[in-house]
Design a protein that fits this description.
It is a single chain. By secondary structure, the protein is α+β, with helices and mostly antiparallel strands. It has three domains: about 1-5 and about 35-160 and about 330-430, D-Maltodextrin-Binding Protein, domain 2 (3-Layer(aba) Sandwich); about 165-215 and about 265-310, Periplasmic binding protein-like II (D-Maltodextrin-Binding Protein, domain 2); about 445-510. About 45% of the residues lie in helices and about 15% in strands. Strands 1, 2, 3, 4, 5 and 12 form a six-stranded mixed β-sheet that branches. A hairpin with a 5-residue loop joins strand 8 (about 230) and strand 9 (about 240).
């Protein structure tokens, strides 16, 4: 806990002098001639490479390499866009997508192995792999070759970083004379008071004590010592929590919460707008969400005194204070070089630029002088960025910054875009070591991947549908539990778990 805090503090205080100040790092300068390369980048069903993205224009000035996108926005599905691209007779020079797909298609010949190019042309990538060995493991296919350069959500070595946390209406607590809950039982009692004691003062029982944009209740399951998906167990393996007794008991308890009106009646249907809708109408009491965006709502709704503040995770039924949802170091995407690329050496040098200090700054903060300034070694976004409609991340993404490809996103950039309340929540979870280790990015053999492809989607769909029936009260947990577990076994859940464990054993061996 203290170690991770010190490391982050050092990163924030000693930040980032450019290589001219002497980091012992080689900057990528590129060749003498300008080079045009085509790139396929279509991710998350909405993010499509734009030739006019400002940070790529800036990178062109520094490297002599200009990228031109081939993906089109008229195809809304990233998976469909990827399949369509692969069907073309000639592939684009660079392919950006999920690491799993890049490795699989690399082994089939669509992308070329990169390890020799990395050794000869990419000192920054070599350094990255040394500092972040899990990135090299993730990038290595089961045939032993590296087919893509992965990217990260934070620089290596910072430990288990927060992403989300609990928020609660401090103004409602004050109105009812209540203290911030510190245990799951206290949290239940506070939510019950929110429901029954009219904290918004309008004379109606219209408060919605707990809501969530995603409709996934993993943050509440953890309060009962339960998991609802794959997780790292205490024996050093991987388990699937949704068949365990702790999960069964958690579902029963949350079904009770729902029946008592403590959980949003539209938890599974209200969707992404629930936070905006319920806070703007003075109806929402507590949630679990991103620190940066959630902490911004107090400034938006000063009229009725909204005071929505981060709080520590309530201690679970075993007395443990922890946060299961955190920031994986790898975001799972990256880019590789296609078989039709005529300039693999220059392309690798271009990739290497993005893993340099200069490239990392450009990717994380945007363009110096335009998007951010440096004062006394501290990086600060300019007011236009800080006050941008939609927030700092949306502004940066419109310039191509913080888009997920083979680059490092420095955590300082996220913190620089946070208000003081968001930083308070982030640091609370960081300094107290609440965040638990996250599932690593695993590489599966063809046989393992076939098992997962054949069964996992159906298993997850069945679990989600059954969970909703239980939470909504449509079916009794005790009466249907045995059949639920038996059905999952008939859907080959054990085979899927075995595939995950085999991949995890290899991951540990390769990491060590």
């Amino acid at each position: 806990m203290k170690k991770s805090t010190r490391v982050l503090a050092a990163a924030l205080c000693g930040i980032l002098l450019l290589p001219a100040a002497g980091c012992g790092e080689k900057e990528t300068t590129g060749g003498d001639e300008n080079l045009d390369l085509s790139v396929h980048l279509h991710i998350y069903d909405y993010c499509v490479f734009d030739d006019d993205w400002a940070i790529f224009k800036e990178a062109e000035e520094k490297t002599g390499v200009a990228l031109h996108g081939t993906a089109v926005e008229t195809i809304s599905s990233s998976a469909q866009a990827f399949s369509t691209m692969l069907a073309d007779r000639t592939l684009p020079d660079i392919i950006a997508y999920t690491g799993d797909e890049l490795k699989e298609n690399g082994m089939q010949g669509a992308l070329i192995p990169l390890e020799d190019l990395i050794e000869e042309h990419a000192p920054n990538i070599q350094k990255f792999f040394e500092e972040c060995p899990e990135a090299k493991v993730a990038a290595t296919a089961t045939d032993g070759h590296i087919y893509y350069i992965p990217g990260t959500l934070a620089q290596p070595g910072l430990g288990n970083l927060p992403s989300m946390g609990f928020f609660i209406r401090q103004d409602w607590l004050d109105a009812l004379g209540l203290e911030t809950p510190t245990t799951v039982d206290e949290y239940y009692n506070v939510l019950k008071a929110f429901r029954e004691q009219d904290p918004n003062g309008n004379g109606q029982q219209d408060e919605i004590p707990y809501f969530k944009r995603s409709g996934v209740l993993d943050d509440l399951y953890q309060l009962f010592g339960a998991k609802n998906s794959f997780y790292l167990n205490a024996d050093g393996g991987i388990s699937y929590g949704a068949t365990e007794e702790a999960y069964k008991n958690a579902v029963k308890e949350l079904a009770k919460w729902y029946s008592e009106g403590l959980i949003d009646k539209e938890i599974y249907t209200r969707g992404e707008q629930s936070r905006e809708q319920l806070l703007s109408s003075n109806l929402g009491g507590s949630t679990h969400d991103w620190f940066s965006s959630t902490a911004s709502y107090n400034d938006k709704y000063l009229g009725f005194g909204l005071n929505f503040v981060p709080m520590a995770p309530p201690a679970d039924i075993n007395g443990v204070v922890k946060e299961d949802i955190g920031r994986s170091i790898l975001h799972g995407l990256g880019w590789g070089i296609s078989k039709d690329n005529k300039n693999p050496e220059r392309t690798m040098e271009y990739f290497d630029f993005w893993l340099s200090e200069e490239g990392t700054l450009l990717h994380s903060f945007g363009i110096e002088g335009k998007d951010y300034t440096v004062e006394n070694g501290e990086y600060q976004f300019v007011p236009e960025v800080l006050n941008a409609e939609g927030g700092v991340p949306a502004y940066l993404r419109n310039e191509g910054a913080v888009v997920e490809f083979g680059a490092i996103n420095r955590i300082e950039a996220e913190l620089a875009g946070m208000n003081d309340l968001a930083k308070e929540g982030f640091n609370m979870y960081l300094d107290n070591g609440y965040v638990q280790p996250q599932m690593p990015s695993l590489g599966f053999t063809e046989e393992e991947q076939n098992v997962i492809n054949a069964h996992l989607t159906d298993i997850q769909t069945f679990c989600k549908e059954q969970e909703q029936k239980w939470i909504l009260g449509a079916e009794d947990v005790d009466a249907t539990w045995d059949n639920y577990v038996a059905t999952l076994q008939s859907m080959n859940l054990d085979q899927v778990i075995a595939a995950y464990n085999s991949a995890y054993v290899r991951y540990q061996q390769e990491l060590n």
